[in-house]
Structure formats: C-alpha cells, structure tokens
Design goal:
Layout: E1 2-6, E2 9-17, E3 29-39, E4 45-56, E5 61-67, E6 75-76, E7 81-90, E8 94-105, E9 110-121
C-alpha cells in the first residue's frame, strides 16, 4: 500500500494487476487501483478535481485532468473517509502513477493534496536491480 498525508488528509492507494483484462500478445496491460481518502483534520472538505500523471515503462507520459472521481465530488466531514476503485490501461508491463486532488474547505479555501506515487507492475515485468 502507498500513503501520502497533506493537511491531515490521508490518501492510500492499493494497485492490483488484472490479468483477465490484459493481453500480453496485444501489449495491453490493465490495473485496478483502490484509493481511500481519510479526513483526519478539523474541517469539512470536498474533493473538486483530480490531476493524474501516468508514465509507462517506455517513459511515455499521459496527463489527465477532470472533475471529481468516479463521477462524484465527495464531501468529507472530520473523521470521514471515501473509498473508490478505478482502473488504468498501459501498453507496457509496468509503469507508475502520481497525482493530486484539488480540495475546498467549507469556508471556500482551495488547496491541493498529494496522491502518493504508486507502481504498476505485472507478473511479466522484468525488474533490473543495480
């Protein structure tokens, strides 16, 4: 599991390779990832936007900007958490993702929180250790 905390808001990520949605022959690899956002701070916050940077094993980057996550813009009271699962395809057997969410407090203050960089590895990925 990967973890980042910004302004008392914790974001954890658990990636999962999905062989049933992948095809080595067609260079199509697919991962799901489950994200849990926990508000440990004293203020109510809402997730407004997301920004992802997805990098495959060849170094190709794709940036994604969008409203909310999985069709929602969750509001988190102090102590509440929001969990969702999404997915990402890559043309290589490995890669990584990183990103951030734009949040807003109930007073209207906007700020960003980090999503931890997480690795996307398939069983076909050959790791090289130096």
């Amino acid at each position: 599991m990967y973890r980042a905390v910004t302004r008392q808001i914790e974001v954890t990520v658990e990636p999962n390779f999905m062989p049933e949605r992948s095809s080595i022959e067609r260079s199509q690899y697919f991962w799901s990832y489950t994200i849990v956002i926990t508000n440990s701070g004293p203020e109510t916050v809402q997730l407004r936007t997301r920004h992802w940077i997805i990098t495959d094993a060849s170094g190709r980057k794709q940036e994604i900007h969008g409203e909310g996550v999985v069709g929602e813009r969750p509001v988190l009271e102090p102590g509440e958490r929001f969990e969702y699962t999404s997915g990402v395809p890559l043309p290589t057997a490995s890669g990584f993702m990183t990103g951030r969410y734009q949040m807003v407090t109930s007073r209207g203050e906007q700020f960003e929180i980090d999503v931890p960089t997480f690795s996307l590895d398939s069983p076909d990925c050959k790791r090289v250790l130096n």
